[in-house]
Amino acid sequence: MKKIGLIPKLLAGIVLGIAFGAFAPKFIVSLLATFNHIFGNFLGFAIPLIILGFVVSGIADLGAGAGKLLGITTGIAYFSTIVAGSFAYMVSVTIFKPIVAQTASLTADNPEHSLLPSLFELSMPPLMEVMTALILAFLLGLGIATLKGKSETLYNISVEFQKIMEKTISAVIVPMLPLHIMGIFANMTYAGEVTRILSVFWKVFLIVIAMHLIIIVVQFAIACMIGKKNLVTTLKNQIPGYITAIGTQSSAATIPVNLQCAEKNGVSKGIREFVVPLCATIHLSGSTITLTSCAMAVMMINNMSYTLPQMLGFIAMLGVTMVAAPGVPGGAVMAALGILQSMLGFSEAQTALMIALYITQDSFGTACNVSGDNAIAIIVDALQGKNKKSNKVVEMEREAAITK
Fold it and tell me: Which is more confident, 5 or 314?
């Protein structure tokens, strides 16, 4: 029997949730709410561990190959991610407000207030706060990167712990997500809120994809200006990588095709073989656009307040936590759950909405990510070429001075 993908399962969960909320007795919806309560608490318990598992080894791996080229590539990737998130914020504030305002007449209250509660309470306090986990992860990651080569013990532990958390996500959390989404939508339907939510969802979906395409064109336009290449040709060369990413939903699985795209764009062998795999891990402009936009939509739907400094801080931290994104469908939103809760104050139901919104278009975000990787490869190749030329000039001047 052919394995069903995560997106069809999530869509089925949404449809079944609406059906249960509309026609099932209250007790059934309460049972689903109880599952959501337990699963949500487990997710809250796991989030700091996920951050530790992925951020520590991620920073350790980056630091292990520290050098000028790594610094340039990482800096460009982070800047691109921040710009993409800021762009998404500006578009969201401008376009989402009228969309959400059109549905405001359905209810003026926070949708959370009318949801059915769990049948019982089960506490699963996390071992540490999210910010504590982030700070600890940064300290351990940088420390391990510094000691790597002298002591491999901590590095091996971080890699093995990463594998444990990756297995937890792929074997426990991700398989449970469709049921979690079903329970959330059943509860919202029972509370009479689902019409409002869905009327916003599909519009946000289309706007996010449009933003992806715009940022890809902007990234390649800048890259072509710096690298002195033809914009239309480079965009045409990127199409195979874009389509592959949509089909695989994985930046890592798209690397071989993306390397071919970089070769067609004239990126030198050494640069493309370094930049493309690295950026598949650290550059997630498409995912940042999606997460920022979905977060804004969920906050507006729930009448939550937000400020520009708050969202800029969220985007800046998002650019860092994206390095910790697990290599599974929806991995980016899993890595971001911690700061969604700690910086934006998201609840269980709101994080579930974020997961549903994000994963249903995850493939398009991945396609945007990998396309931006090749734009960065063109920029780094051009900068590296200029550095080599300047170094040759310096060497020639030194030789001339010695001759004199």
Answer: 314
